[in-house]
């Protein structure tokens, strides 16, 4: 029993560290090889790792659901990767800021369930969504209020990109829960990511990835980081998450939501990134909303 607890917490900490550090890696790499190339490289690397497993498992996926499985890979991995890479290439969105905004994902899951699947939701979850949105608004308005600047689309766009990514995650979680629940999670993960080898290969050519100056050491480092994001942050982390889900259940696994932004903020602090105390307050407000959303009646 004790060894099981050790394994659960080890998996939990590994996930928090992998996903929490990914924002810093995206921030550093996107400025070198540009966001489009970074996103394509990230998901291509994950797809390449999962491709052998995808070929093995694809026969077990019902043919009529293959389209939904591919959609799972697109909205759950491919599009969010582009949105995050674009946002974190903006100086206004630091790694810690990206981690804080990513914490809105559970709120998006509940909102999508209400809006499109007519799920009945307890009143405390609705209150949690409201609290989380207050944290988001404060976090978005903070630089405008502080700099006495106008709220322009250019200022809003990076935040809207991350918000859109969390909404895509929300759509994806509901897609899996309502349309793909009969497929074993590890098979779904390997096949959906493995299928992304096709669009990401096309993206690498379209965005002229192979025209990069590969002899440049900065470019080499950015490519290593981008590949690591895909292999560790998308492929390996997915396996770890499903292992944690099977060992500890959904409630314990959902606690990762709280750990990711904390790790992102700590890494930013260690990297001497200025972290506004009000940002920490906003994180606390958002996580309070997430707590209510995750709380059972």
Summarize the structure.
The protein is 81% helix and 0% strand. The chain is mostly helical. The radius of gyration is 19 Å and the shape is globular.
Task: Give a structural overview.
The chain has 297 residues and is mostly helical. The chain contains twelve helices and no strands. It has helices at 2-33, 35-57, 66-88, 95-102, 105-117, 123-147, 153-179, 185-194, 197-206, 217-253, 256-270, 277-294. The two termini are 28 Å apart.
Architecture blueprint of SSEs:
Elements: H1 2-33, H2 35-57, H3 66-88, H4 95-102, H5 105-117, H6 123-147, H7 153-179, H8 185-194, H9 197-206, H10 217-253, H11 256-270, H12 277-294
Helix pairs in contact: 1-2, 1-3, 1-4, 1-10, 1-11, 2-3, 2-8, 2-9, 2-10, 3-7, 3-8, 4-11, 5-6, 5-7, 6-12, 8-10
